[in-house]
Amino acid sequence: MIKSGFKWMFLIIGTTIGAGYASGRELWEFFGHGSGLAILLFIILFSFSCIVIMNVSYQKQSTEYRPVLKDIVGDKLAKIYDVMIFVYLYTTTVIMLSGSGATGQAFNFPYWWGIVFIVIALIILFLRDITGLLSINQVILPILLIGLLSILLKFTVDQELQLFSHWDEQHNWMAAFPFTALNILPLIAVLGAIGDKVESKKEIWFACIGSGLILGLITYIYNNSLIQIADELLLYEIPLFAILKNYPFQMVIFMSILLWFAIFTTAASGILGIVTRVKSYFQQYPFGLLVIIILLTMIPLTKLGFSNLIGFLYPIYGILNLYVLTRLILYPVWNNANARKK
């Protein structure tokens, strides 16, 4: 149970911690000053939403997200959100590819080198279908989480920051809702594709609560660090590099590698959601070929730039997804009501 629970927990975290999150850009768009309570609410909302999604996926033994989506938002809205999830996964995967290009630029490599590198890596990963993604998540994510947390804690100690110094400022608590909503939609797509592989509800509770607590802890410490350098963030496309500016170059290289892996795992989750969705229309084509075709269509869109894409798209998605979050929060209530009617 624990081994499988870790597998799903890392899948959830890998889907959530992408270029936007690990770089700090996504966190700064939603949180910032007065967000301690917002982050606590995020932990609760995120964990609960994941439990609902995985339970539905498990009960339906689903292999793609449509059956799960229909159960959560209803048949009428499922078609609208089906399109929306596809567009979301597509555009956020483009953002991940752009993030790979931006990471390469930090070391004076051409922007396109970073994009070509991640495209080739994704193609290689999916030669083993979904098993490649699950395997690499269990190796990469523990290193990523420990590395990111270590840097943030070191920055906190070096700057003599107080983790709870801003706890009396809670005016931004509403940010928890669009931020959770933003991160829930891709999880419907990814967790909806593994329902037939989950073996027990204990795995679900372990994975969902564990991922919520880990993400909440890192989010709180990360946001607290960004508050201290708020005036400098306009100068950096990737806020993480503002935190690292006074540290040895070797540490910058190490964190840049971890940042790239965060980008990679989220891009892989996005590709998984897209390909499992379109596979029913193109069953004659191998999984790997569909991955290649989809990635080739994304490359031209990466010219829009990493921070521009995040700054424009993420707040919009966060607002549009609020209805899905509301349905997830109220799912036990209206699901029981529907059961009584039957």
Describe the structure.
The chain is mainly α. The chain has one domain: Hydantoin permease, CATH 1.10.4160. 76% of the residues lie in helices and 0% in strands. The protein has 15 helices and no strands. It has helices spanning 2-16, 19-22, 25-30, 36-60, 66-73, 75-105, 111-125, 130-158, 176-191, 201-228, 239-244, 249-278, 287-298, 306-320, 322-341. The protein is globular and about 50 Å long. InterPro entries: YkvI-like. The chain crosses the membrane at residues 34-56, 77-97, 109-127, 134-153, 173-192, 204-222, 249-275, 287-306, 312-334.
Distance between the termini: 34 Å
Helix share of residues?
over 70%
Task: Say how many strands there are.
Answer: 0
CATH architecture: Orthogonal Bundle
Question: How many strands, what sense, and barrel or not for the largest sheet?
Answer: none
- Number of spatially distinct domains: 1
Which structural category fits the helices and strands?
mainly alpha
Order of helices and strands: HHHHHHHHHHHHHHH
Number of helices, where a helix is a run of at least 4 consecutive DSSP H or I residues: 15
Average pLDDT taken over every residue: 83
